[in-house]
């Protein structure tokens, strides 16, 4: 893999607590860190069947460059990509190239 294949842009968001009028505490999503270049590959139907992920959702794998910031991304965060919010299922180092991390995430938004 090379950096040239990272043609998509993603934004990591982190949930924060906000105190509103009357002291009411609520949660919101806030952009966290810089916008990242990524490669996106959607999970195929065959992969979804094998993994028992046959819900009505889009499961995608995003590959990003490894960095101190990338290693601070947590499963509790989410990704914004092309106007859709993706919940993070897992983050792992690519076995063949330690310079990249793979984030598996899903969305129920429609394309």
UniProtKB/TrEMBL annotation:
InterPro entries: Phage_SPP1_head-tail_adaptor, SSP1_head-tail_sf. It comes from the Bacteria. This is Head-tail adaptor protein. The lineage of its organism: Bacteria, Pseudomonadati, Pseudomonadota, Alphaproteobacteria, Rhodobacterales.
């Amino acid at each position: 893999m090379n950096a040239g294949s990272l043609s998509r842009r993603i934004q990591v968001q982190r949930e924060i607590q906000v105190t509103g009028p009357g002291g009411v505490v609520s949660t919101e999503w806030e952009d966290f860190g810089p916008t990242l270049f990524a490669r996106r590959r959607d999970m195929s139907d065959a992969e979804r069947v094998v993994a028992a992920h046959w819900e009505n959702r889009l499961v995608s794998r995003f590959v990003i460059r490894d960095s101190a910031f990338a290693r601070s991304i947590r499963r509790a965060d989410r990704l914004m990509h092309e106007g859709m919010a993706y919940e993070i299922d897992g983050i792992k180092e690519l076995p063949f190239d330690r310079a990249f991390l793979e984030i598996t995430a899903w969305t129920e938004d429609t394309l």
